[in-house]
Write a structure and sequence with these properties.
Elements lengths: L2 H17 L10 E7 L2 E6 L5 E3 L14 H23 L13 E3 L1 H4 L10 E4 L8 H7 L5 E2 L2 E2 L2 E2 L3 E2 L3
Antiparallel strand pairs: 1-2, 2-3, 4-5, 6-9, 7-8
Helix pairs in contact: 1-2
Amino acid sequence: MCQENVKVALMSAIAGIQDNPGQAKVVFRAHTAMVEDVRCIATARNFATMDVDEPPELGGSNTAPSLVELALVALGTCQEIMYAAYAAVMDVPLDSVQVKLRGYLDLQGLLGVDASELSGYQNVVETMESRCPALVTLVRSIVVEGKVTINGQRMETYDAAA
């Protein structure tokens, strides 16, 4: 691992933000599309298209990780990145970091069997640091807005928090 590259990049970012706080506001984008059944594709920046699918028990063809598995991937890799970043800035030698996560779902909410059950992980077995953007994004209340178009006709804008 080359922590020096990480440290140089982060110290430069910190200095830039201190000189111009407006640089702290960044935008990340992704594009997703349904392909067939419950299989979707996703792209971010200029990277290769990524597949997202469900296991057969949830109507998928099991060709790719599910979205809830990708949420665990996001949490785990965010934790690893934060350890690497802080270790580099603090000059703490770091040889490796591994995170193992296990998420527990109750399908009653997802499948509408019990409306009182929330759809999503009930519990994730792992301790996350407060600086992990993936965790903070998932656990705090954020505004999610969207536009829906059905067969070419624009529907009303929705706010998922409402």
